[in-house]
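Here comes just one.
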Amino acid sequence: MKSKAVGRPGPAGLKLWVPQQYGAWAMMLAPVLTGSLRAGFRWQHAVLLVTWIAAYLGYMAVRGWLRSRRAAYAAPVATYLAATVIGVGTLVIWRPALVWWAIPLVAFMGLSMVLVTTGRERSVLNDALLMASSCLMSVMAATLFRLGTGIGWGAFSAGVVQPREWLVAGVFAGYFWGTIWYVKTMIRERGKTGWYAASVAYHVVGAGLACLVNLPVGVLGVVIALRAILVPRLWPKAKPQWIGLGEVGLTIAMIIVLCLTIPGS
């Protein structure tokens, strides 16, 4: 009789611990990596990166438990929650003003959990909430060392008012929001003219706005728009893993372009 792995990261239980979503990993990691690299990667950025990964994995584990009610999710949830608390505690002790980031992040994640419990985890709104949380990490990472040493609003606001870092976060948001529409035209809404038209229109406008940032960002925006226009027509039955890997490639290109062509604040 075959035994089942319960809550440990073996072959049978790996999905309990690590979600198999290539595109989601790209969206989750790219902004925080970009912000860290733009600021000059230090040990605090390493802590932030590990904490953010733990928080994401914990979120996915809780989401899996809410959806399935499987007791096997208890170990991943407890492990990732503990890692997140330790990481957050370390960073807040170092820079107490970081607690102000909890306001938008807790609000976004809380609303996302409401959507999950009501069966709307795959809605566009939930995708937008996760995307917004990830994009904020770009600004957080880039401004870590600009925060004051106190805990008051002044110590926080003085550090995060950095227009170029918010521009970087905005570029990521524009790209990821378009990816949500593009992926839906390839999978769940494949073959639906309305979704395809909306995706194409969004990407064409986005490419135009990208050209206003600088030439390299504009060129990448055009490439992304061409992907949204051509791929659903030429390869409408592409497998999800290939779609996700394609987004990983574009996201890596985005990180490189944003780090090299937009000066740090």
